Amino acid sequence: MNDSTFMAEALAEARRGHDEGGVPIGCVLVRDGEIVGAGHNRRVQRDSAILHAEMDALEATGRQPGAFYRDVTLYTTLSPCAMCTGAILLYGIPRVVIGEHESFMGEEDLLAERGVQVSVLNDHDCRTLMQRFMADKPSLWHEDIAEQDDAPASR
Amino acid sequence: MNDSTFMAEALAEARRGHDEGGVPIGCVLVRDGEIVGAGHNRRVQRDSAILHAEMDALEATGRQPGAFYRDVTLYTTLSPCAMCTGAILLYGIPRVVIGEHESFMGEEDLLAERGVQVSVLNDHDCRTLMQRFMADKPSLWHEDIAEQDDAPASR
Q: Domain CMP/dCMP-type deaminase, which positions (chains A, B) (predicted)?
């Protein structure tokens, strides 16, 4: 299993979110070569302000001791926002693999400043899914990142 | 209603968490002089990796447009960790009032760097509740902030 394989799993989560009518972003957490948590954005599905894909995957992983996260790699289809970046920093996750950051540039600089290894795959399928959603449901997308409808997306 | 009054409400939330056997940290979100969301840490109660007090209060507030948060003040009994700080930044909450930061120093510098107004009340009751908990249940506290049991608390 390599980065592309795990990103495909994160993308499958994103597609699940899309099929549910939600924000199509997915995430998996991998430890010792195995997926230990998977999730997707559930803002619409759960009427949630906090269940971004990364948060949903962390929640799916359950309560763990701090040491657990030191061997985890987080795969997310889209560059992580400030909230998800903060969760990555809280848990001390050492490596983050990002499907794409053209649709939205998150807090990759902050992650790198704090010593997190960040890789961006520039994945065509992640980008296509996200950009179709942004064109179809701009208000939902802006709500998800707390932007005004007419403001540029960068947070 | 002033800062002390709202902090008393956050502290009441923290005490609820304590009475439930959880991590005793509470939070309220205030907008136009009214509490629009309240919550407390539910790591134990919900077997949750993400329901810190601030996240629980954001979730209780429900889905809102981005503009909603621009008039919100967040009151939390303890200095916010990286995850909750990230959520504050995502939602563009302009002001954070902190009960105390002696028991744990969170990401106040990052909040200030990003233009969030941070006030620390040095509240005796918030500190007493927290320090009693940290002495009684050190492993639970360390799990909550993803520290090793023998590591110093600072994140």
A: 1-118
Torsion from C-alpha of B47, A15, A139, A122, nearest 10 degrees: 100
With tokens 């061997």, the residue in question is A71
- Report how far apart, in Å, the C-alpha atoms of A131 and of each of A24, A54, A112, B130 are: 10, 19, 25, 45
Does residue A83 belong to the interface with chain B, where contact is any CB pair within 8 Å? Answer: yes
Average pLDDT rounded to a whole number, residues B34-39: 98
Q: What letters, b where the CB count within 10 A reaches 16 and e where it falls short, cover A118-151?
A: beebebeebbebbeebbeebeebbbbbbbbeeee
Contact B86 A85 (CB under 8 A): yes
B48–chain A Cβ distance below 8 A for any pair: yes
pLDDT at site B155: 45
- How confident is residue A148, by pLDDT bands cut at 50, 70 and 90? confident
CATH second-level architecture of A3-143? 3-Layer(aba) Sandwich (3.40)
Contact B86 A63 (CB under 8 A): no
Domain positions in chain A are 3-143
Please state the rounded mean pLDDT for residues B75-84.
Answer: 98
pLDDT at A149 over 90: no
Nearest-angstrom CA–CA distance, A102 and B139 = 41
Residues on chain B touching A85 (C-beta within 8 angstroms): 86
Q: Do A48 and B65 touch (CB under 8 A)?
A: no
In chain B, which ranges are continuous DSSP H helix?
3-19, 43-46, 53-61, 82-91, 108-113, 124-136, 138-144
Separation of first and last alpha carbons in chain B: 31
Sign of the Cα torsion B46, A143, A88, A2 reads positive
Confirm or reject contact between B145 and chain A (CB < 8 A).
yes
